[in-house]
Amino acid sequence: VAPRVRVVGMQTERTTALHDSLAAGELRSVPVLPTLCEGLSGDIDQRAFELARRVVDEVVLVSEDAVRRAVRALYVEEGIVAEASAAVAAAALLEGAVPGLRGPVAVVVSGGNIDAAVLAAILSEQNNRTA
User: Fold this and answer.
1) Cα(104)–Cα(54) distance, integer angstroms
2) CB neighbours of 124 closer than 8 A, spacing ≥ 6?
């Protein structure tokens, strides 16, 4: 629709199915590792792979700690309750993981299904936690 728009996918270092599949040029199965981003965990299917091959320019990876910091920042700074899978894009931007950004940037934060205890734990953490 808009060929000049750059589409960047984001995943964590523990949820790499799309990243690995696009890099290999074919579907790749990945281990299911413990992650805050349950919605990104596991493999992708052929339909998602084909769509991503057509529209995604690249996929960047961020740490689980970066996602925790993004969940916290979205809540504290913007009043947005975001589940971890929805905060991955914000994490990538906040961590500077997307090189070459120019012009307007849009981030889709599409889920707020976070366990209250998990959110409370993230909000009580120090800002300087490292990966």
Assistant:
1) 22
2) none
Residue of 70, 96, 98, 93 whose CA lies nearest to 83: 70
Instruction: Render pLDDT for 51-62 as a digit per residue (tens, 0 to 9).
Output: 999 999 999 999
Tallying the residues shown for the chain, one arrives at: 131
Q: Please compute the mean of the pLDDT values over residues 14-38 and round it to a whole number.
A: 97
- Contact 44/18 with Cβ under 8 angstroms? yes
The residue type at 21: S
65-118 tens-digit pLDDT:
999 999 999 999 999 999 999 999 999 999 999 988 888 899 989 889 999 999
Q: Is residue 85 within 8 Å of residue 38, measured between CB atoms?
A: yes
Contact (Cβ atoms closer than 8 angstroms) between residue 121 and residue 101: no
